[in-house]
Amino acid sequence: MQAQEICLRMRGVTGLGAAKASQIIRQIVAVGGEPYRLLRELGLNHRQQTQFRQANPCHLAATLTWLELPDNALWIYGEADYPERLLTIDDAPLLLMVAGNPEAVRQPQIAMVGSRQFSPYGEHWASYFATGLVHCGFTITSGLAMGIDSICHRAALAAEGGTVAVLGSGLANVYPRQHRRLAERIIEGGGALVSEYLVTDLPMPDHFPRRNRIISGLSLGVVVIEASLRSGTLITARYALEQGREIFALPGALGNPMSEGTHWLIQQGAYLVTGPKEIAEQLGSGLHWLSLSENTTICASEAEVELPFADVLANVGDEVTPVDVVAERAGQPVPEVVIKLLDLELAGWIAAVPGGYVRIRRAGHVRRTDVLV
């Protein structure tokens, strides 16, 4: 029995952590021959031995055939290819199926998550932050779900950056089906698909909360774009906290149910962020910043570039500033100021919020405390 099949069979054995299971796999491979006689000697009880023996032969064969195809790989806990960041989390997956570019999974990653039901506000800022973080040198990691997840993946691809999708199903059963083409585009764009399930495994309700631990585990931090208080997105935030990852949340409009989850996270101590640069600065050290085009100012400091419409920008405060107040302070007609404000927003200098605009500034003063999710 080859090592890959031993690993796939061990995947279905319950009651073993990844470290113990991977140790048993190595011992079986080292001895060679048929593994069944070794199972009891290696500490597996009767139920676990039965689980090993009765692994679905069709699923095993399909996965082994899939692994023979180019750009498909099996990573086992503790081996060289296995992501180092996952080694430190509780309940690490024993194996990972990887399709696409394995280097994408090894790059500095930011997880971006949010609700499947989203508002125009969430759609806009998810795309904006994903684009900005790509320009800052990060790979965008999410779950390929409907809503905010897919918006972030598409924005990363449009920015010619890397993106990783962690699935709650086997990689031969991409879910949702509407995103099969998006999954193909992720691979074509130099990204990767990742799953802890055998390639033929169907999407099951309990798979999706569990895959969230991998999304956060692979990442340096988690950005929550938009979420209600009952959203499964908060599960990812909980995992991030348990794993020692930074949690970032976007503020939204008061009274909007889709912002109640992010506001709650901020109240609990998550970083309030209004621009990608704040995330990059907080995570900071040692990252290679990609060169930006002259029209991209997301990760540039004010000292490095000429301020556009400085006369208008100077009159947008750190607190919400109505458009008519900006126009009055600048001494310019409101229609002209509106056009300039839109350009400043698109360039990343200000953010549109209910009631007007705010100047984007560093959020380093926001202190992280324990987030109880």
Q: Residue share in helices?
A: 25-40%
Largest beta-sheet characterization = 9 strands, mixed
Large-scale geometry: elongated
* Class per helix and strand makeup: alpha/beta
The number of distinct structural domains comes to 3
Q: CATH top level of the largest domain? A: Alpha Beta
**What value does the Rg take, in angstroms?**
23 Å
Termini distance?
Answer: 44 Å
CATH topology of the largest domain: Rossmann fold
Count, helices: 15
Strand order across the biggest sheet?
1-2-6-5-4-3-7-8-9
**Count of extended strands:** 11
CATH architectural arrangement of the largest domain: 3-Layer(aba) Sandwich
Give me the strand/helix succession.
HHHHEEHEHEHEHEHEHEHEHHHHEE
Please indicate the percent range of residues in DSSP E strands (runs of 2 or more): 5-15%
Fold blueprint:
Blueprint: H1 3-11, H2 18-31, H3 46-53, H4 57-67, E1 72-76, E2 95-100, H5 102-106, E3 109-113, H6 120-135, E4 139-142, H7 148-158, E5 163-166, H8 180-188, E6 192-195, H9 207-217, E7 221-224, H10 233-242, E8 246-249, H11 260-267, E9 271-272, H12 276-283, H13 310-313, H14 323-330, H15 334-346, E10 350-353, E11 356-359
Can you give me a brief rundown of this structure?
This protein has about 375 residues and is an alpha/beta fold. The chain is about 40% helix and about 10% strand. It folds into 3 domains: about 1-55; about 105-285, 3-Layer(aba) Sandwich (Rossmann fold); about 300-373, Winged helix-like DNA-binding domain superfamily/Winged helix DNA-binding domain (Arc Repressor Mutant, subunit A).
